Amino acid sequence: MRFRIRPTETSFYDLFSELAGHLVGGANLLAQMLDSDTDKAALAEQMREAEHQADETTHKIVKRANSSFITPFDREDIYRLASDLDDVMDFMEETVDLIGLYELGELPADFAPQVEVLQRATQLTAEAMPRLRTMKDLDEYWIEINRLENQGDKSYRRAVAKLFSGSYKSLEVLKLKDIVDSLEHAIDALESVANTVEQIAVKES
User: Fold this and answer.
1) Can you give the pLDDT at residue 2?
2) Run of H or E including 134
3) Nearest to 95, CA basis, from 182, 189, 187
4) Residue from 148, 142, 94, 84 nearest 116 by CA
5) What are the distances in angstroms from CA 91 to CA 8, 20, 35, 139?
6) Which of 161, 145, 2, 150 is nearest to 85 (CA)?
7) Of residues 112, 119, 152, the one with CA closest to residue 28
8) How does pLDDT run across 100-138, given as a tens digit for each residue?
9) What Å distances lie between residue 6 and 18, 133, 136, CA to CA?
10) CA atoms within 13 A on the CB side of 203
């Protein structure tokens, strides 16, 4: 086991938990966009604010890493984990923004499974962040995220196949393909978070 002096302050762990919490909120807002009766403009504004808050938390993590003499784990891993988490929020915000720009009042039901994967994966990520303090019981987290990513891939392929089935007009296909791609990117980014957590845990074990 590698010897490491760990700082007693807990701000890094708190900030990572805070950032993951923003992702949970973003995924829930995204889920509300699937309801044709919701005020999508209001939801888009809430998502922009959530993305801004996530950016602020990311900047706090980077600033703390730059100013701390001792960090709880490698500085490069802190930067990577913060960036990976922020990427998830960026892709979710992109999805919501595209829905508004394309003026899509209703999304295909085939998109719902991907959003459900995002909701579950962000919740698991938020639950995993506090465990960085001890680096214990994290293996179940990245294993489940990998399973969810595979599930998301299958949902993505089914959704794309439906888009090109002839049921939609050409312009609709282009718009909806952008949406489903952004959802897929968000899921992939969550897998990157889990992979980074796994790498950190292996280094620290």
Assistant:
1) 45
2) none
3) 182
4) 148
5) 34, 14, 20, 25
6) 145
7) 119
8) 999 988 899 999 999 999 999 999 999 999 999 988 889
9) 21, 10, 15
10) 15
